[in-house]
Write a structure and sequence with these properties.
It comes from Micromonospora ureilytica. The protein has 15 helices and three strands. The chain is mainly alpha-helical. The chain folds into two domains: 4-149, no CATH class; 179-399, no CATH class. A three-stranded antiparallel β-sheet has the order 1-3-2, sandwiched between helices. Strand 2 and strand 3 (269-274) form a beta hairpin. It is globular and about 80 Å long. The termini are far apart.
Length: 420
């Protein structure tokens, strides 16, 4: 009789193949177990060991806990994602090498910091999910197959066990608990909840003003220190529906905050590269603007005349694309005004040569990081199929106008179409 590891390997090979009946036969073998008194328990332990090992092999290949959680939920389901969280907790419990603080932050965010003994993880998860043994094993094998099939992606931060992993501050992070960021979050939360466009405009504008000032202050502070940071990165979800429109919004907000963005459609996320304070700004603004854009889209959809325009999906997509591009225009225009004001202030106090060269050098560093991590990135041109949706989305972006931002248009932003 095969041992537990061999049974798992056979089931995994069958799932990767095209013979459905063979896959079911191998699943039956897993159900039976090794034939020993504790055969099924041995199978559970073998599945978990291989899943933990597979996760550990992803970290040097660029994946982070939140990335694996996101793609598991996207390609499988929420139950599989929760199994991955249990495996993450088991791996962290046994991890001896240095682990960066941001890694544990992600695990806490995923509620993946608790886990039982190795022999009970799979059965405990199955019980909580209300799964019988056959369904639990099927989900576990499918999850393992996914984890072991994920391709390498850009390494944005030093993973556990590598040089730099134990540093208290890593590139791509910022002081997320600062009073200024708490104020920004509070303003954006109010902007998302209000039903009055003028109030949302004022609240979001104030939030962006604080972000822009903070970004310039951080740039000047870094220029006068010996920290030696390099640009880092974050990944933002762009799942369906309207994944392309969400990716465009990421890129417009990124460009307005001195960052670069690359969309990985097949993996369901956009990678944003930039300096710590700017990355935090992009995350906050993208999340808030997506909420505001969706609410405005639903209001606009309800106001359409019966029978006017094309089907709802085409109208929605045109609306969101127009919203993203118009927001980007306003952010970039406001950035120029904010930078000019800061440069004039610097000229009066510390010399005109100080601010603009600092910003230029930081922008060049971000572009170099982009070229290193994403050689050969291509542009994508939008196709707008509903002029009414485009016009409505542009108007909604005007109502959600932002007063201050930062930066230039990224090389990866899809080309601007003419509405037809």
């Amino acid at each position: 009789m095969p041992d537990a590891d061999e049974l798992v390997a056979n089931a995994l090979a069958a799932v990767r193949g095209t013979d459905v009946r063979q896959a079911e036969r191998q699943l039956d073998q897993l159900m039976v177990g090794t034939g020993a008194a504790d055969g099924t328990t041995a199978v559970d332990a073998a599945l978990l060991r291989r899943l933990v090992r597979g996760l550990g092999q992803l970290w040097p290949r660029g994946w982070q806990p939140v990335d694996v959680d996101r793609i598991t939920g996207r390609r499988l389901d929420a139950r599989a994602a929760r199994l991955v969280r249990h495996a993450l907790a088991a791996q962290r419990r046994d991890q001896a090498e240095p682990v960066p603080a941001w890694w544990d932050d992600q695990l806490r965010e995923l509620a993946a910091t608790e886990g039982g003994a190795e022999r009970s993880v799979l059965s405990g998860w199955a019980t909580r999910e209300g799964l019988d043994r056959a369904d639990a094993l099927r989900t576990a094998v499918d999850t393992l197959a996914l984890v072991e099939s994920l391709p390498p992606i850009a390494v944005l931060r030093p993973p556990p066990g590598t040089s730099g992993a134990a540093l208290p501050r890593t590139a791509g992070t910022a002081r997320s608990g600062s009073p200024m960021l708490d104020r920004v979050r509070a303003l954006l939360a109010k902007a998302e909840s209000t039903t009055f466009p003028a109030e949302a405009e004022a609240l979001t504008g104030k939030a962006q003003e604080l972000i822009a000032r903070h970004s310039i202050d951080e740039a000047l502070l870094a220029a006068g220190s010996e920290r030696g940071d390099v640009p880092g990165g974050v990944r933002l979800s762009t799942d369906a529906p309207y994944a392309g429109a969400k990716a465009l919004l990421v890129q417009e907000v990124a460009a307005a905050n001195r960052c670069e963005a690359v969309w990985s459609d097949d993996l369901g996320f956009a990678t944003v590269l930039g300096w710590p304070a700017d990355l935090v700004a992009v995350e906050l603004l993208y999340t808030s603007l997506l909420v505001q854009a969706t609410a405005a889209m639903l209001r606009g959809r309800a106001e359409r005349r019966p029978g006017s325009g094309r089907r709802t999906k085409v109208w929605d997509e045109s609306f969101l694309n127009a919203f993203a591009l118009r927001i980007g225009e306003r952010l970039r225009a406001a950035t120029e005004a904010a930078t000019d004001a800061a440069d004039r202030a610097a000229a009066e106090t510390a010399g005109a040569e100080r601010l603009l060269p600092v910003l230029a050098a930081r922008g060049e560093a971000v572009r170099e990081r982009l070229d290193t991590l994403f050689p050969g990135v291509t542009r994508h041109r939008l196709s707008v199929r509903d002029a009414e949706g485009w016009s409505s989305g542009t108007s909604a972006a005007d109502r959600a106008s932002l007063d201050v931002g930062g930066g230039r248009k990224p090389r990866q932003v899809p080309g601007r179409p003419d509405p037809r």
